[in-house]
Design a protein that fits this description.
The protein has six helices and seven strands; from the N terminus they run αααβββααββββα. It is α+β, with helices and mostly antiparallel strands. β2 and β3 form a beta hairpin.
Length: 243
């Protein structure tokens, strides 16, 4: 009996140790899994942060490149407009005889007939400009007509001669410096020797909102007139959207 009891006690003790070992193994396994998951999470977080920084750097670089490209393209549009008007002013100053005009008011009609095709062809060559014009100063004319050469593109994209008297107040406009469509004229006169850009305004003659670059033309200190070009604001917005 004593021997049987001893054997039974030994088996019970052995089974208890096995259970404890199993519990310990399970705990160790659970701890190992937790450590592995934590390590993976830390690794994943570090990798994600590194990737995010790299991706952000690439995106920032791309945005900077695209923004710079758009800025350069828009700058080229404006510089092209400025260069064309400045060249036109230099030609007018060179070939318009203001003293002959003061002696014979008929001279300007011959000049306009000869120079009108020049302005038309010049506009056709200026990319992204929708209007080109030369407005003669009323002080050197007889005021018996509208002395302005003006070509622009209509809504159908056709290059047409624009009638500056369509609003019915051609000469009255020269008496009012605050008149919206005359900002290009008086602004240029107020800044002799350099061109100016206007703020966007509605040009009632063509029914378009425009920004204009213009420059006054002088000969021997006498104002011949103002040359300028229009860029439709609608076209500018569309150009930026396309870019």
């Amino acid at each position: 009996m004593q021997i049987a009891a001893a054997v039974l006690k030994s088996e019970i003790s052995s089974n208890g140790g096995a259970r404890q070992l199993n519990v310990m193994i399970k705990k160790i396994s659970l701890i190992t899994i937790c450590i592995a998951v934590l390590a993976f999470a830390v690794f994943a977080a570090v990798e994600t942060m590194t990737f995010s920084k790299t991706l952000k750097k690439e995106i920032d670089s791309k945005l900077f490149y695209e923004t710079k490209k758009i800025a350069n393209q828009m700058s080229m549009v404006f510089e092209n407009a400025e260069g064309s008007v400045d060249t036109l002013c230099a030609e007018i100053e060179h070939n318009f005889d203001v003293h002959r005009q003061l002696q014979s008011p008929e001279y300007i009609n011959l000049y306009m007939a000869d120079y009108s095709p020049v302005i038309r062809d010049a506009l056709a060559d200026i990319e992204d400009s929708q209007g080109l014009y030369l407005t003669f100063s009323p002080d050197i004319t007889d005021r018996n007509g509208a002395y302005e050469i003006w070509y622009s593109y209509d809504r159908n994209g056709e290059l047409t001669y624009t009638d500056a008297t369509s609003n019915g107040i051609y000469y009255e406009s020269f008496e009012d410096e605050s008149f919206p469509t005359m900002h290009y004229y008086f602004g240029a006169i107020a800044n002799p020797g350099k061109g100016i850009w206007t703020e966007p305004y509605m040009d009632s003659d063509i029914g378009q909102e425009v920004i204009a670059y213009s420059r006054a033309v002088y000969s021997d200190g006498i104002l011949i007139g103002v040359a300028g070009t229009d860029i439709y604001t609608e076209h500018t917005v569309r150009l930026i959207n396309d870019m």
